[in-house]
Write a structure and sequence with these properties.
Rossmann fold, Caffeoyl-CoA O-methyltransferase, about 40% helix, about 220 residues, Cation-dep_OMT, binds S-adenosylmethionine, 8 helices, alpha/beta
Amino acid sequence: MAESKSTPITDELYAYMLGHNPPLDPVQRELVEVTHARLPEVAGMQSAEEQGPLLAFLVRLTGARHIVEVGTFTGFSALSMAQALPADGKLIACDVSEEWTAYGREAWAKAGVADRIDLRIAPALDTLRAMPAEPHIDLAYLDADKGNYVAYWEELVPRMSPGGLIVADNVFFHGSVVDPGATGSGAAIKAFNEHVSADDRMEAVMLTVADGLTLARRR
Ligand SMILES: C[S@@+](CC[C@H](N)C(=O)[O-])C[C@H]1O[C@@H](n2cnc3c(N)ncnc32)[C@H](O)[C@@H]1O
């Protein structure tokens, strides 16, 4: 078996890494703090702090103009990506919660990017299926209910532009993907990872970022 060359991430090393990333801007910082203060029981759903600058970097790197986000919560990842879009870029944000996304709406307005974000409150599968069938999405961020990841993938892949990037979060599902007895979301993510590896339409790499992050590029 190949040996890991990864350095274990201590709290000190994690803080060091954050300290060498682009800092969150005041609106992003406030959104992270407000989410933890007002929604302490579910705040863990927010994308990790380092994923904000990473997603922004990927938007700029790919020159994405049309983004789809599946799973918005209080809007941190959508904010980070929308800020990196050109002024005429668009992000369709999919979620089922008016309550949680209301925090996002407020932050997006404060940051001056509300006009770039089209929030669709509905089951994300319905929203994706209603989109044009031809390739037009430059970047998609997958971060919603794990049981539907394969279905989301199947709706997204044919709609991805050539070279378009799918970013899938939580592909380790807290380590349960290596548990032979994994059930529920852990089992669903295992099935998703197998599905992605077997899909010749996409070139995919799995990274040890936060809870595991897959980057997949449309061939
Ligand atoms: C992990 S959170 C997203 C975190 C977000 N990307 C962020 O950075 O804060 C998952 C979100 O998926 C949403 N969700 C769950 N099931 C859904 C569905 N069937 N359709 C759309 N959204 C769904 C939840 O309401 C929740 O806000």
